[in-house]
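Exercise 3.2. Students should predict the tertiary structure of the chain below and write it as structure tokens, then compare their answer with the key that follows.

Predict this chain's 3D structure.
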Amino acid sequence: MGDSKDEDEKFQEELIGLDPHDPETKAFADHLDKMQRQRPGYTVEGYLEGVQDFADSANRTTGHQRLVAVIVVGLILLGVLLTVWFALGDILAIIF
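Answer key:
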């Protein structure tokens, strides 16, 4: 995510008393960084970062949460597939 030195300085108050070399502390600092990150939602890069966050979260989960993530992705892909199918049908109907 970011440089660990920047995260230590940024979240100094939240990490008081925690070992900075502990993996759980680093994960907590990464979580705080993700929660406070501001990204533009109106750009392609902003949307893609949101998709990346969703994919990372879905890959870490197990059980029912992973099943729900797979169903959500499947429904999105089904919607895209149907949209392309109907658009191609309309284009072919206009041409021929």
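Discussion points: The CA atoms of residues 61 and 72 lie 14 Å apart. The chain has four helices and no strands.
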